[in-house]
Amino acid sequence: MAESGSPGGETLLFLTDEQLRKGIEAMFFAYRAFTADPDRLLEEHGYGRAHHRALHFINRQPGLTVTTLLAVLGVTKQSLNRVLRTLIEDGLVESRVGKRDKRERRLHLTEEGEALERALSEAQRGRMRAAYRAAGPQAVAGFRQVLEAMMGPDLHKLYQMMKDE
Amino acid sequence: MAESGSPGGETLLFLTDEQLRKGIEAMFFAYRAFTADPDRLLEEHGYGRAHHRALHFINRQPGLTVTTLLAVLGVTKQSLNRVLRTLIEDGLVESRVGKRDKRERRLHLTEEGEALERALSEAQRGRMRAAYRAAGPQAVAGFRQVLEAMMGPDLHKLYQMMKDE
DNA sequence: TTGGAAAGTCAACAAGGCTGACATAAAGTC
DNA sequence: GACTTTATGTCAGCCTTGTTGACTTTCCAA
Fold first, then answer.
1. Contacts A31 to B, Cβ<8 Å
2. d(Cα B123, Cα B37) in Å, to the nearest integer?
């Protein structure tokens, strides 16, 4: 019941606690749907969500280093390594020694890795595309604005690191 | 590279695979930020995200049954029970035998439960409020539209079950 | 040459999903 | 009244994915 009134001349009803709670629930349910499609596919291949995330970002930034991927994913080295190791063993990801700095490992998807990434992304984009189409370009712009504002400056920096087109 | 052209007379650039991928990443980063604040608070109390979700929905629908909560959360009985048991033992949730149907357990928050829920929600709403304010009412409307379209009919039904104001 | 950064590994632990199998009480049905 | 179904709870065990802490190897850079 914080800001229910009309302090200035503007209507701030969209900042009501109730509206905020509905927004929170919308995030909860939407995120569940958002991960459901790739999850099904992953299970068939014996992988989990963590594998998907690694594949996604390696695909987006071919040649990124392990340290960068760690920062992007926001997990510990040990946690990522477990996932990365199986992907490399299974021949989905290739780890190449850095040219200038030989300590670095540059990560790339193999053809097989690209194929799985594409399938996972397809599933996820399918739902996204349907939602975008249903809501329209104006709504999509608002959607992106709110999400970007919500992620805060640090994550927004990582977000912008990913190539835009 | 599916729909890059201009099939009709309309610009469908917002349905580009690249735009969809950015949307996917926005969801990923935003959801991470979205859960970060309550997670900190939860850790101080020795609880996890699962406890937060239970508290949230019991608060929203006081007196809901276990079966309903199961449907809303989308987890198994065993998984929910582990969480619910500790909340009841710790005196945050009260389980009352149903009046008409005595098999049912009606779930309610105690005062202590309400206090924690309020604190968690406050943390989460703080970020949400800032994002909403920064993006403006128009963007918020679009945000909600896209999320609702994304969750699909089944989850949308559960979403609408929650009281709106 | 020496300190620090990048990567990898081992071990142990915790949260929170899951399945399967059962048990009980209460409702509902025939 | 006997039988079936529903709502709930519980035990046991497994998996993924996160964590901390300790330690190693390799390599860059001052």
1. 27, 31
2. 6
Q: Are strands A105-109 and A93-97 parallel, antiparallel or unpaired?
A: antiparallel
Task: Write out chain A residues lying below 8 Å of B130, CB-based.
Answer: 149
Q: Stated in angstroms, how far is A65 CA from C3 C1'? A: 22
Centre a 10 Å sphere on the Cβ of residue A66 and count the other Cβ atoms it contains. Answer: 17
Beta-carbon count within 10 A of A51 CB: 22
Nucleotides of chain D in contact with protein CB (under 7 A) are 6-13, 16-22, 26-29
Q: Count Cβ atoms below 10 Å from residue A48 Cβ, excluding itself.
A: 13
Contact B18, B25 (CB under 8 A): no
In percent, how much of chain A has pLDDT > 70? 93
Q: Which residues neighbour B45 within 8 Å (Cβ) at sequence distance 6 or greater? A: B116
| Rounded distance between C-alpha atoms, residue B72 and residue A96, angstroms | 45
Closest of A21, A144, A155 to residue B143, by C-alpha: A144
Which domains, and CATH codes, for chain B?
Answer: 13-161 (1.10.10.10)
- A6 part of contact set with chain B, CB < 8 Å: no
Task: Tell me the ipTM for this assembly.
Answer: 0.92
The Cα–Cα gap between A85 and A105 comes to 13
Strands B93-97, B105-109: pairing kind: antiparallel
Nearest-10 Cα torsion for A165, B146, A40, B54: 130
H helices present in B46-110, as ranges: 49-60, 66-73, 77-89
- pLDDT tens digits for range B84-129: 999 999 999 999 999 999 999 999 999 999 999 999 999 999 999 9
Task: Quote the pTM value.
Answer: 0.92
Count Cα neighbours of B35 within 13 Å in the Cβ-side half-sphere.
Answer: 15
By C-alpha distance, the chain A residue nearest B149 is A131
Residue window 125-144, chain B: list those with CB within 8 Å of chain A: 125, 127-144
**What tokens does B97 get?**
């035998």
